[in-house]
Every structure is written in structure tokens, then in C-alpha cells.
Amino acid sequence: MFVRLHSSFRLNNKSYTIDTLEKYAHSLVRSGEIHEVEIGDFLLDWLDEEDTIEASTSGSTGAPKSMDLSKEYMINSAKATGTFFKLPQDTSALLCLSAKYIAGKMMLVRAMVLGWRLDFIAPKSNPLDELFKQYDFCAMVPFQLDNSINRLHLIKKLIVGGGQIPGHLVAMVQGIETKIYETYGMTETVTHVAARRVNSKKRSADQTYFKALPQVVLSTDDRNCLVIKAPMVVEGSIVTNDIVDLMSYKKFNWKGRIDNVINSGGIKIHPEELERKLQLVIRERFFVASIPHESLGQQLILIVENYTDIVNTAVLMNKIKVLEGIHKYEIPKQIFLLKTFIETPTGKVHRTKNLQRLHENTLINL
């Protein structure tokens, strides 16, 4: 495949030809820091004669796996992002994610294809702390957003992926000038295929539903799980395990993962929906799950990360019981504490492994 660099492309304020970019990539691999080596490795893969790039999934819904992504599809995805978010040639952008995963790779592809001026820094938890330059566009994970609230004036448009934005963060970004979007996608779809604005001044329905990118058509299967048809980035259709309320072939509300659904006494509880309610009274990281129960089948439990040893389960339970909008069947029967949560390689809470750790620590029959 012939790779072309946009004439306006800049990387850390320098312009490149294919030859000079390849030399620079080699220098990053030879003597760069870890995040620079990852960037160098990707650039060398991008500039070679192969038609595909190897990418790894995050491992949040199963074991991480590698797959080959079409460079043509990655170019198409970059163009769709540019159109959807109105990011033309000469957009200034910041890369603060690892180029080991698709989100970081695609920031580089967008810059090369669309002619952006891209700067990269180490993918740390507080990426904006030592910056004073303003950027048109940036991508982060929720944890980085949480640590960047006071410096978001440096970013005009921000996309947040790799996990749901917690409710307390959504509340904190209201009124901020930065346009913040939560994205939906996966490695298989070459990053995001839909997004929703979370801090619109109009406080409209835009803050609840996801809108598909150009040339993406949505539907559901008989489980009410989302089906994605995006011919510009993937062959055929992708059938997900994400339960949604489909509003149209372009819009949906996300409810949660079907493999996380809890059936307690015949009542189906969507953990992610319940977690959105509980975020109003729990600042620490947490998730809800279930343990086997003789009569109910599954009993609802709450697992909270107690890193600072300040969580009082009795006090927390009382807060949950009086929480507005909580149903009696949504009140956890037990609260368990773990000192630290096990994470996926991309920083998401690994539900399965944390449940296993809970089992080992408490001898619960999970």
C-alpha cells in the first residue's frame, strides 16, 4: 500500500517526508523512552509495504488479543473523525495516550492523513500539568480527565474513551468551555464509531445518546444488543454484547454489557446503569456484581476500592438506601472492600479478576 503524508503534517513542530519520518522513527526505537519507542514502532509499521497493522485489544471484556487492521480502514476512520468533529487541516492536537493501543495509533494516523500539527508527551495520569500551550483537539481516558479538570482550558475539543465517564466527572465538566465527548468503539472498529457530547450548554438529549459517525449504520439483534455496520472500517457487521436502546439507525442509548446482567429473583439488573446512580454517593472506584444465592439465584453485591482505608460500609449502605431514584432491588445486599483493584493494560477495572481476588480473600462461593 502506498503511504502518503499530508503536506501540512507536523510532529512536535517538525515537518517530515516519508524518508525523514522513517529515520526519526528508528531513532525513537533506538534511544527513546518507552512511549517514544511505541510511537517509533508504530510509525515504522505504518510506513512499511504491508497493507495491515497489528493491534491489540485492551482486554477489558476478555483476554487481550492481537488482530490485523487494514491501513485503508484506518485512513477511512481518520477522515470520518475529522468530518464528525470538524477537525480540518492544521488542527493542533496532543497525543497523551500510548501508541501501543488503537486510540494512540489513530491520533498519529489522523495527524498524518489530515495534516494536523501533533505534539506527543508521555501518557501519564495528569498529561496537562506541565503544559501551557493550547490545543484544538486531544484524546484521553477517564482517569486522565479526572486529573486534568483544572487545566482543560488548554483543550478546545476532547474525546474520552476506554471506559465510561463516571457521573461525578460528567457533573464536574458542566459549564466548562472545552467541548467534551464520550466515545464508543473498539479495536475491531478502528477506534470510535459513535460519540456523545457530555457538557452541552443546551443540556439537551445529546448528553444521553450516542450519535454514529459518517457511514456507520446501527441496528440491534434479538437480545437488544448493538449491531454495527461500518463498511469503511470493517468487513461485514459486528455484533456486540452491548445492550442499547436504539433510537434510530444513527442514535442509541447505551445500557450495559449483556454478559454483566444480574438476574436476582427474576429481576434483571444492568450493573452499568446502577453504577451510574451509585456514582452520586461513591467517590472511590467501584463496581456491582453478584454472588450465587439459594432462592434469588444471584445476589447483588457492591465492591469498592478502599485504597485509602476510609470507606465505612455501614455509612455507605445508609447513603445508598436514601439515594433518590434507587429501587429496593438495586440496593446491594453486601458491600465488600478491596485494597486495590486489578486493572486491564489500558487502566480499566478488570471485573472478572477482581471478583476472583474477592473470592480468594473472603472465600465467597463465586
- Average the pLDDT over all residues and give the rounded result: 91
**Into which percent range does the helicity of residues fall?**
25-40%
Strand order of the largest sheet: 2-1-6-5-7-8-9-10-11-15-14-13-12
Largest sheet: 13 strands, mixed
Number of strands: 20
- Give helix and strand order, one letter per element, not per position: EEHHEEHEHEEHEHEEEEEEEEEHEEHEH
Count of alpha/pi helices: 9
Strand content: 25-35%
* Shape annotation: globular
* Content-based structural category: alpha/beta
Low-confidence spans: none
Report on this model:
This protein has 366 residues and is α/β, with parallel strands linked by helices. 26% of the residues lie in helices and 30% in strands. It has helices at residues 18-31, 34-47, 71-84, 102-114, 142-146, 167-172, 271-278, 313-321, 351-362; strands at 10-11, 14-15, 52-56, 66-70, 92-95, 117-120, 135-140, 155-160, 179-186, 191-197, 210-212, 217-220, 225-229, 237-248, 251-257, 262-264, 267-269, 286-293, 297-305, 334-338. It has a 13-stranded mixed beta sheet. A hairpin with a 7-residue loop joins strand 13 (225-229) and strand 14.
Short description:
With 366 residues, the chain is an alpha/beta fold.
Secondary-structure blueprint:
Layout: E1 10-11, E2 14-15, H1 18-31, H2 34-47, E3 52-56, E4 66-70, H3 71-84, E5 92-95, H4 102-114, E6 117-120, E7 135-140, H5 142-146, E8 155-160, H6 167-172, E9 179-186, E10 191-197, E11 210-212, E12 217-220, E13 225-229, E14 237-248, E15 251-257, E16 262-264, E17 267-269, H7 271-278, E18 286-293, E19 297-305, H8 313-321, E20 334-338, H9 351-362
Parallel strand pairs: 1-6, 5-6, 5-7, 7-8, 8-9, 19-20
Antiparallel strand pairs: 1-2, 3-4, 9-10, 10-11, 11-15, 12-13, 13-14, 14-15, 16-17, 18-19
Helix pairs in contact: 1-2, 3-4
